[in-house]
Amino acid sequence: MANKIFTEDLESKKTNNFRYCQGTLKDEISCVGVGLHTGIKVSMKLKPAAPDTGIVFHRVDIAGNGAVIPAVWNNVVDATLCSSIGNDEGVKIMTIEHLMAAFHSMGIDNAEVEINGSEVPAMDGSAAQFVFLIECAGIIEQNAPRKAIKVLKEISITDGDCIVSITPAEKGLSIDFDINFNADAIGYQSYYVELDRESFKSDISRARTFGFLKDVEKLRAAGLARGGSLENAVVIDENTVLNKDGLRYKDEFVRHKILDAVGDLYLAGHSIIGNYCGSRSGHVHTSQLLNKLFNDKSAWELINLDDYTPSLKTWKESFRAFA
Ligand SMILES: [Zn+2]
What we know:
Shape: globular
Radius of gyration: 19 Å
CATH architecture: 2-Layer Sandwich
Number of strands: 21
Bound molecules: zinc ion
Number of helices: 8
Helix content: 10-25%
Number of domains: 1
CATH class: Alpha Beta
CATH superfamily: lpxc deacetylase, domain 2
């Protein structure tokens, strides 16, 4: 079975053209954790998958063969506080964005995620432990060209003072984000990143989700944030960060917003060649942006990276997002 799917181990590959091939996990790997919103302990297994599978979630606690839900933009059923995907039977999986960010940045095109509950475990509230799991499982290339969504014209969503947009780019995915909170612990923060495996790992992956103590009771009354704690979130009371070890980056909050965007954008089904800009926006705006993009056939094209010709030299040197 393995030999049919896989060609060779990335670590042993001497050339760089694996960037233009699809990637999956070398082995399966499991973890256990608590959902941020449900508070329910779940087991999750990340498994290799065949070329052109994409990222597919599989609820193994559902009777029969379980429920299979591809992680794509038109399966998003809620993006209010986290990104949730679901199917016509009403089966859903919540809070997929941090795991999706890890898959996206680590160059995993194809994987099956088995989970015995309705929410991806929060782990430490960031993507760092998912990156670690993927690295422990190993990454291998597959005998199929990697595809990407190339943005052809600007698409934007405006909602009050929240704005998101995506514009054409010559190479890779860049993300520019700013936030402005009326709390001294956060205030105004902005950050820009050209996404690749190393920039994500070092500058983005460890940024944790965050919330205000005053909102926790409201969220819990609504059945949310039941698993949230100082172990998996930065919690702010008025102007103070309550976590005794403080922040992981001085601007951890905006970096986490970028982490969320990296995960949400991977619901395009492939990485995007474009410049994404978010201002005070959230999951719902990125979801609306993908809807608007894919409902305008003149706004994008699906390309094979090994066919990509404009600025090919720059492209090959720069597109490390897919490494
Ligand atoms: Zn998040």
